[in-house]
Amino acid sequence: MTASKKEELIDKALEVFYREGFHATGMDRLVAVTGISKTSMYKHFKTKEDLILATLERRHKYLMSLIIDRTDERADTPAKRLIAAFDSLKDWIAGGRFQSCMFIKASSEFQDPAHPIHKISADHKRTLQDYLVAQARAANARNPEQLGHQLMLLQEGAIVTAHLQGGSEAADDAKAAAEVLVAAALA
Amino acid sequence: MTASKKEELIDKALEVFYREGFHATGMDRLVAVTGISKTSMYKHFKTKEDLILATLERRHKYLMSLIIDRTDERADTPAKRLIAAFDSLKDWIAGGRFQSCMFIKASSEFQDPAHPIHKISADHKRTLQDYLVAQARAANARNPEQLGHQLMLLQEGAIVTAHLQGGSEAADDAKAAAEVLVAAALA
DNA sequence: CTTAACCTGTACAGATCGGTACATATAACA
DNA sequence: TGTTATATGTACCGATCTGTACAGGTTAAG
Fold first, then answer.
1. What's the whole-number mean pLDDT along residues B7-14?
2. Complex ipTM, two decimals?
3. How far does the CA of B37 sit from the C1' of C21, in Å?
4. CA neighbor of B151 nearest in space, from B95, B105, B94, B88
C-alpha cells in the first residue's frame, strides 16, 4: 500500500515490458512476476494502459539521468557535451541490459499519434533533442537546431542498429560521425 | 488457389500488420479484411508466423526497389549515390503511407535474436547497409565501412524520428549530415 | 467484543487469441 | 450421371486476454 510498493510494481513491470513487449505481456504474467494479487494490481493501476504509462514515465526519468546527467558530468563545455553524449550512449548500449529504446518500441506498438503512449514517447524524444539543440546553441554552432537534430538522428540510429545487429560498434560509428558534424558546424 | 490469390493475401496482411502491429492483429481480423475463409488462410500459411514472414519477405523486396533501385536511377556515380539514397528515403517518408520501418517494428515485437522474424529483420538491414558500404568503397572513401555504417545510422534515425515526430524534416537533416560526412570522407 | 473499513485471493465473465474438425459445395474425370 | 478429390465456410477448441464480483481475512475505533 505504500508508495514504495507501487514503485516496485512499476519496476518489475518495466522490466518485463521492456524485454517482451507490451501487447505480448499479459496482466496475469505481471501478477505472477510481482507476486501481488490481481485485485491489488488493479487498485494501483486502473488499467493496463495506466501501468504502461507509469513504466514509461519512470523510464523517462531514468534515461534523463543516464544520458543527460552523465553527459553533463563528463564534459564541462557545450561543445564537448555534444560529443560526450555519445559516450553516455555507448555506456548504455554496451551496459548489458540494453534492449533498444523502450519509447521506440512503445511507439511501434501504439502507432496512433493521438494515443497517450505514443505521445509520451514523442515527448521523451523531444526532451533529448532539445538538450542537444541547447548544447549546440550554447556552443555557437552555425545552425544549432540542425546540428542538434542531426546528432539526435545518429543516436536513434545507433540505438536501432545496436538492437538489430548486436554489439556496440554502432555507438562508435555514431560518435565518429558526431565529431565530424560538430567540427564542421563550429568551424 | 492461384499464386496471385496468395500474393493478395500477403498484400492485405502486410498493410494491416504495418499499420497496427503484429501482436495486435489477430488472424480473425485478417480473415475478415481479406474476405477469405479461415481454413483457406491456414491452407496458404501454416501459422501466423509463416504469414508474418511472408509479409516481411515481400516488404524486403519492395524496399530494395524503393531505396536501392531508385537511388541507382537517380545518380550515376557511387559518390552521388551516397547522397541520392537520402532523396529516396525522403520520398518514402514523405510519401503518405509511411509508418516507420516494418522491420524495426518487427524486431521490437520479436526481440529474441534467434527468432526467425528478428533474423529476417536483421538481414534486411544488413542488405541496405552493404549497399551503402559498397557505394562508399566504389567512391574511394577513406574508410568505406565506417562511412557506409554512418550513413545507415542517419537513415535509421530519420525513419524513427519521422515516425515519432511526424513530418519529413528528419530526412532533410539526415541528407545534410550525409553531405558533410561524405565530403569529409572523400576529401 | 463488536462493528466497520479496508485489503487480499480466487474465481469467473465476456471477448479474443491461434488453430482445427467437419460438413458442405464445387470441380474433374469416368 | 456417379465418384472422387479438393476448396470452402462454420462452428468450435482450449488457452489467454483485460477487467471485476465477491467472499474471507485483517486492522482499528468504539
1. 93
2. 0.92
3. 15
4. B88
